[in-house]
Amino acid sequence: MPNYLAFVAPTPVCSSRRSARKAIVRAKLTQSSMPDVSVEHPTKTRDSAFAQFCISTFRSIMHPKIGWKSPRSGYDGLVEECRMLLARKGPEEQQKVVRHTLDTLFQAPHGPRLFRQLFSDSPRLNAFITPMFFKWLVGECYTNRPEEGGFGVYIEKCRFLEESGCKGLCVNMCQQPTQRYFSDVLGLPVRMTPNYEDMSCQMTYGVPPLPIEEDPAVSGDCLTNCKMSSSIRLRGDPTCYVTKSPK
Questions:
Q1: Where would I find the Beta-carotene isomerase D27-like C-terminal domain in this sequence (predicted)?
Q2: N or C: which end of the chain has fewer CB within 10 A?
């Protein structure tokens, strides 16, 4: 005998419609809260095969830590992923991502140990090879003898600073973690002195970095028309970690 009392009540139509509306609202909110990290003027630099390989390697190491991958290819995609990291994380987390990237590239702990044995006592050699291996990242550069001593590399117009358009990215994803890694891990002190007015930068091997509280790079106002101001506002703490001012 059939059991006419055993049936499943249909889902109320009004409940389904409410759930659908809530899903649409959530999707719209997610889209509106997504930081704008797009590159306004895509780079016109024609990267060599070696440069493209380096860019691809950097991105493959970094974007899993960032939790997002830019749809753009090449250097523009790298810049957008760095911007996304700044929009989502504070300076400590940003520098940890750079540390992880450098550890991977140097095959830590074996690579840094070998570097210390072969290159840490030769600031001149490091200054000589830097333009050959990092031109793709920073743009045109050449060796020089800085006033503060040591052996240096002068970056005429830093590609990363120009493309990212943000002091925070310069300090937390380049200057500070690079200085710390060379000094603490590779055993070769290096000082990086960016010039925000003309986008140049002086790297000086064999000279210790300035204490962060004395470093003029980590102070002052934002760059004119900082490209990350609106994105930083979406973070829980809408404060620029370099200028210490609210965006």
A1: 136-214
A2: N
Report pTM. Answer: 0.79
Look at the chain and report how many structural domains it folds into.
Answer: 1
Give the model confidence (pLDDT) of 81-119 as tens digits: 999 998 888 889 999 999 999 999 999 899 999 999 999
* Residue 137: closest CA among 112, 111, 119, 155: 155
Q: Could you list the residue range(s) of the whole structural domain that residue 67 is in?
A: 46-232
Distances (CA, A) of 128 to 58, 122, 125, 144, 154: 22, 10, 5, 9, 11
**Is position 105 within any domain?**
yes
With contact defined as beta carbons under 8 Å apart, do 130 and 188 qualify? no
3-state SS, one letter per residue, for 57-83: HHHHHHHHHHCCCCCCCHHHHHHHHHH
Q: Is 234 helix (H, G, I), strand (E, B) or coil?
A: coil
Amino acid at 157: K
